[in-house]
Amino acid sequence: MTPEARLGELVRLRLGRHDTRRGFLKTALAGAAVASASTACDGAGVEKLLSKHYLKLTDEDKRKLFARIEAEVLARSGVRVTVGDPQPMAGVEFVHALDLSLCNGNRRCVEACARENNLPDDIRYLRVVEVDAGTLELANAEHAYDPELVPRSGKNYLPVQCQQCKKPPCVDACPVKATWVEPDGIVVVDYDWCIGCRYCQAACPYYARRFNFREPSIEPSRINPDQAYLSNRIRPAGVVEKCTYCLHRTRRGRYPACLEACPTGARKFGNINDENSEVRRMLERKRTYVLKEELGTVPRFFYFFG
Amino acid sequence: MIRYLQYLKSCAGCVLRGGRNYYLWMGGLFVLTFLGGISWYHHIADGLGITNMSNQVSWGIGIANFVYFVGVAASVALLIVPAYIYRIEEFKAVVVLAEIIAVISVVMCLSFIISDLGRPDRLLHLSPGLGVINLPSSHLAWDVMVFSVQLVLSLYIPAYLLYKRYLGQAPNLAFVLPPVMLSMLWAVIIHTVTAFLLSALKSRDFWNTGLLAPRFLVSAAVSGPAIILLCFAAINRYGGMRIADRVFDYLAHVLRVMLPVNLFLLGCEVFTELHSGTAVTESARYLFFGLGEHTLLPKFIWTAIVFDVVALVILLVPRWRQQPRLLYASCALLVFSIWVEKGMGLVLPGFTPSPLGEVVEYVPNASEIVLTIGILAAGALLFTAAAKVTIAVQTGRLRLQEGDA
Ligand code: SF4
């Protein structure tokens, strides 16, 4: 597919005129969906026993909930954090592009991401793999290369993270709608609603989702106090998390941490709807491709050779 | 109501009374269940980090067992067909026992699933009314729905039939036939939905095949009858009730037909996967030959295939299959081989290699194995108790006495 065609595809999909088998299933069973949605409202008495789904929180709920989380972190680790809830900006759809001819595999992005997002040592949202020059085949990728020795000759480097798909299989998979696509294209997880079944992990073709097998422990001095409910707040044990394009930064007009840390300038990020944005220019001018295009997930993450 | 309480009391009495061997058996099972309970407690208190699962292999022995026992639950329908479609009396006598096997399998499935959740405390998020259910998109949500129905069906049928028998009344067919017919349909449904749960994942080439649902059904028609046959043999031997030879012949016959079909489908899968030799067949290579130094799974799968073949030979040679011992041995082989084929051998290759080509090998650790054994023991415990009551009621030893009511 040419970039123009792909761009066209992206725009077409955004307008929601796509028709798939599952789309058909959805229409056919819309009745069931409506029924389940309408029964899904809360009974008042039990309300206190249960946490609420993010999308049902009122402003008042949010205020109390965020204050409670902040107090808990303070009590546990003595760090004063703020949990915010930046909202998507109207007309914005975020897209990430990555120049593979610049990436040299140094993995600065991986560590910057971990610090920004309060990740414990056993969780990393980003994977940079080493592939032989001349192929991008993941089956033979080297995951354990030494980032001190890069770039090695005859090798290319391929960073992979959540592709923020337009049609994300993980979101379809979740039995309790604990994960969804925000209006600006970011796939988020409600850490207080997830039941930890890990079906979304099985459904993700990009190995983008991580499960908190243990209560995450982060050294107090490393805790990033600038947090958001749907992104980098410290997660509870037993739930799934993933890259959120640093929505607590990007929705406030900053770049994601991975981009800022990248010394080679391989990463581009911006609003695809803005004709003058860098990502839009890359998409229009460069030869781009997306990972596993054949799966029809329509990633909002592009690779190109600059 | 009072009569029903009376009935429950006599059932409890029946379960609590027994000979020395009965107490030993039940005591042993209870200890194993208890140990499993301790392990479950640690799963909850310490998190799933105490298991050997990882982000690469995010489902392990728990899901494997779940998939396996879905098959056992569903296969019970195979006994309902001769009982209620062909109306053969000998089979009607065992329908209650068969349904008990089904309901216990469902309970075990639920235990395997719930103990595998990261947040079992949030189970209510799945319930209608209090939670949010992602229908029609999520196959897992569908599975939860059809499982709930199955649980109700397979609890209701034996409970109703037994109670009627206890009262000495003939069951009202209008209350029996519709749910029984539905339960046959439901056997196919729970199975197919569970297969679709895996085969619909385009991220996992190993599961993403149309053959998965048929293979599920066929392999269940092997493991299920094998387990049922062994349970019935145990009842004949220790239970004080005589299950007709005709039932055993029928089960062995099902095995004789379905086992070759199962092997055939396996062969089709192996041929296509390995012959194409593309990168997407790495998972199959992992299962049958191992990848690099990771060669544990091939040992299991080849043992299973050898077991299948040995069992098939026993079942095909009339002189051998007529010897109960050999017949039981072949069933035992099949119980294990299908567990490998459709449990671990199905779940693990789906995760290996990971979508980014990483090979991480998963082997369940002690706590996972203890939990599995605990749930199996709890199943056996429940079955023994329920079967004891059933037999007492069926044979007329336990029934409403004049003046009780
Ligand atoms: S692990 Fe959480 S987010 Fe993922 S499918 Fe299960 S409930 Fe949904």
Features:
heterodimer; A: 306 residues; alpha+beta; 2 domains; two-stranded parallel ribbon; B: 405 residues; mainly alpha; 0% strand; globular; binds iron/sulfur cluster
Which pair has the most extensive contact? A-B, 63 and 51 residues
The chain-level mean pLDDT of chain A equals 87
**DSSP summary, beta strand count of chain A:** 12
The major β-sheet of chain B equals: none
Quaternary organisation of the protein chains: heterodimer
Shape of chain A: globular
Summed up, the helix count of chain B is 14
Percentage of β-strand residues of chain A: 5-15%
Q: Beta-sheet strand percentage of chain B?
A: under 5%
Q: State the separation between the terminal residues of chain B, measured CA to CA.
A: 10 Å
Major sheet characteristics of chain A: 4 strands, mixed
The radius of gyration computed from the alpha-carbon positions of chain B, rounded to a whole number of angstroms, is: 22 Å
Give the low-confidence spans of chain B.
none
Residue share in helices of chain A? Answer: 25-40%
Total helices of chain A: the number is: 10
CATH topology of the largest domain in chain A: Alpha-Beta Plaits
Structural class by sheet pairing and helices of chain A: alpha+beta
CATH architecture of chain B: Up-down Bundle
Question: Could you walk me through the main structural features you see in this protein, from its secondary elements to its overall organization?
Answer:
- The complex is a heterodimer of chains A (306) and B (405).
- With 306 residues, chain A is an alpha+beta fold.
- Chain A has 2 domains: 1-50, no CATH class; 88-306, Alpha-Beta Plaits, CATH 3.30.70.20.
- Chain A is built from 10 helices and 12 strands.
- In chain A, the strands form 5 sheets. A 4-stranded mixed β-sheet of chain A has the order 10-2-12-11, with helices on one face. A two-stranded parallel sheet of chain A has the order 1-8. In chain A, strands 3-4 form a two-stranded antiparallel sheet.
- In chain A, a hairpin with a 5-residue loop joins β5 (179-181) and β6 (187-189).
- The longest helix of chain A has 19 residues, at 59-77.
- Chain A starts with a helix and ends with a strand.
- Chain B is an all-alpha fold.
- Chain B has one domain (2-404): Formate dehydrogenase/DMSO reductase domain (Formate dehydrogenase/DMSO reductase fold, Up-down Bundle).
- Chain B is globular, with a radius of gyration of 22 Å.
- The relative contact order of chain B is 0.16.
- The model of chain B has no long low-confidence stretch (mean pLDDT 92).
- Chains A and B meet through α2, α3, α6, α7 and β7 of A and α6 of B.
